[in-house]
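Hi L.,

You mentioned the student needs an example of a multi-chain input paired with its predicted structure. This one should do, with 466 residues in total across all chains.
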Amino acid sequence: MMQKNIDCEKCFESPDVIFTKLTPEQLNFVRERHSCAHYKKNDIIFKEEDEPIGLLVLCEGKVKVFREGVGRREQIVRMVKPFGLMGFRALFAEENHIATAMALEDTVLCIIDKDDLMKLIRENSDFAIGLIRSLASDLGFSNRRTVALTQKHIRGRLAESILFLKETYGLEDDDSTIKIYLSREDIANLSNMTTSNAIRTLSTFSSEGVISINGRKIKILDIKKLERISSLG
Amino acid sequence: MMQKNIDCEKCFESPDVIFTKLTPEQLNFVRERHSCAHYKKNDIIFKEEDEPIGLLVLCEGKVKVFREGVGRREQIVRMVKPFGLMGFRALFAEENHIATAMALEDTVLCIIDKDDLMKLIRENSDFAIGLIRSLASDLGFSNRRTVALTQKHIRGRLAESILFLKETYGLEDDDSTIKIYLSREDIANLSNMTTSNAIRTLSTFSSEGVISINGRKIKILDIKKLERISSLG
DNA sequence: GAGATTTTATGCTAAAAAACATAATTAGAA
DNA sequence: TTCTAATTATGTTTTTTAGCATAAAATCTC
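Structure written out for the whole complex:
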């Protein structure tokens, strides 16, 4: 328990986290009232049909949020990075979760339960605006993504996903390796294609010198070309 | 100008509109400060890259919101019915509009400019929560839709769209005709398919006795079968 | 109301992507 | 470590859907 609270500490101090909108008193309230949860790789954080419990702030780790569609085939609808918000959309839409969140690596979450969350929203409009902003950005992302996934061809969709992963998680010190290691299946589920097509197209990109692959490590070799492939569909 | 304000009146009085969250003083403020805009069928309300001006409340009419993708092909991301909210997502995401809104029939909008909107959010947390709720519902819709449009086959996508139109706009007095008349092209753009496939699949549904078509009027004859087609993909 | 334009309808062909099959490789468990 | 299971790789076939063509019907414009 002691350990737990220490693990969330960095998330109260980050300049990127929604908690920066809180007054010192409110931040103390959150420090006292929050709970902290730890997940190992592949652990499920919440799943479709679960009841939402409040606001989840990702302190550490990486998370995929996906929805199961036809024949249990999963489509990743969101990738979360540290200080991103999760789990509160369903609360406000007054429904159960419509997607499943799974840890892609060891993950630490800071949890604000729904009553505490409502209290903060009611007494601090900047905090409320922060939540509005988060939903507004996610909705923009989702709308753009719907069109890209439905209209672009396989190469365009995969190129877009690679660029998206780079934007979201950044690059390692070599300035070219994307800082996330996904299975080909996850890459396929992100890009709306079968696993074999993801594998095939990745190796085509590699043979074209656009990327290089080493197991699950993807290096971007020619970002201009990747952007061209992505935008031409 | 006089005329204009009268046209928005019904929207201040509806039990479904976000203005119900306002205090009487705030409602008066809105009555004084709002502006009212009229659009004819096919008029553009805002388009991609336009700067957002505030909150738009649809008082009367029907609106499609679409995004242009590969080869200017449009994908409808939202259909708006009276008392639905529009145009404020981009404001909070701090970006320009990423989609175009077009009137599908003669339409009346109530416009709250962004400074007035911010004032209302800051002084009334129920109003802020109403906006959060609207975005949260839209985001859920968008995520569900992304998966349906990418994973379902043509028949499933079209069946889903027909059911969605029925849910959104309701039925006429005969209890079977959907209360919106869209071109085959719009139906195609809603369902992620080419116009010819929309036409073809609609006439297949008709010959199977699932629906009947009379020009742009669609009657649902066998809703159970339609639901089955939609859910099986 | 005649002519032009748009929308709807249907058939045919081509392209894209899924499905399937079979290895090779890698990672995980006993 | 060795065996097993999962992941990655690649070739082939089949299905789905887009693209194109043509014509009929409906709508708009002058």
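You could point out the following to them. Chain A has two domains: 2-149, 153-232. Residues 153-154, 193-194, 196-197, 215 of chain A lie near DNA strand C (CB under 10 Å from a C1').

Best wishes,
N.
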